[in-house]
Structures are given as structure tokens and as C-alpha cells.
Amino acid sequence: MKKQVLLLILVFGFGLAYAQDEITDDDLKAYAIANAAVKSITSSISPMVNDLIAKQEGMTGQRFKELQGAGGDADKLAAVEAKDWEIKFMEMINGEIEKRKDAAKEVVNLMAKYAMGASTYKAIRSGLSNDPTLQARYSEIEDKLE
Fold it and tell me: Tens digit of pLDDT for each residue in 65-104?
């Protein structure tokens, strides 16, 4: 039994080392580019929301948060005395937020599919959470992109 466990550990260990060797610097660069694009898209959400709130007469950030907290639940919206125009405004902003989130997902999907392959993308994502060597390689590449 101990020999079988040791054999499994060795095979698994070599499998991990082999998987990391398959991840090239080009793969890591493509992953970093995808992450930079996602950050660029998602970091624009809050300023966009704040700008739209500032331009909307009668709307404040606090009131918008109150409406968002109610979600789409009719009872909760009634409890915060949401007006029809407030609900429409919130729905419009939520639509814009979803468009940007969808764009970020699409970037990841395209990069995973065409720049590195889905399995490599998943291996990088997994490896970055628990492989210090891969993390160091990625950080070095990411620093060069900035």
C-alpha cells in the first residue's frame, strides 16, 4: 500500500512539473494581456456609474445604492419607495454594467481559445494559486507589460 501511495505521489509530482514545463512564457504573456484587458474594462465600470448618476437629475450615489440593494425585487423596491424613473435608470445602468462584464468575459474566452488554448489557460489560472515558481514567472512577465 505504501509503495502504491509513493508511486502515485511521484507520478502526480512529475505530472505537475511536466504541466508547468508546458506553460511557456508566451502563454503567460497572453494570460497577462487578457488580465490587463479585463482590468481595463472592469475598472471603467465605477467611473461610468458615477458619471451617469451625476448627470441624472434627482439621483444621488446613496439613493442608487439603496435601489441596487433592493435588486429587482418588487417588494423591496416598494419598501424603498422607488419611483418608475429610478427603476428604469437603475435597469439602464445595470445593463451597461452587464455589457462591460460580458466584454471582459469575452476577452478571456477569446484569449483562452486563440492565444493559449483553454487547457493552458486553466492550468495557468490553477498554477498561479499554488505554484510559487509559476507565480514568479508570471509576475516577471506582468511587470514587463506595465
Answer: 999 999 888 899 999 999 999 999 999 999 999 999 999 9
Rounded to an integer, what distance in angstroms lies between the CA atom of residue 139 and that of residue 34?
Answer: 14
State the pTM of this model: 0.72
The letter for the amino acid at 69 is G
Answer left, alpha or beta for residue 117, where phi above 0 means left and psi between -120 and 50 means alpha: left
With b for 16 or more beta-carbon neighbours within 10 A and e for fewer, the 117-127 pattern comes to eeebbebbeeb
Residues 6+ apart with CB under 8 A from 44: 100
Closest CA to 47 of 88, 100, 102, 87: 100
Structure confidence by residue, pLDDT tens digits, 6-23: 333 333 444 444 444 589
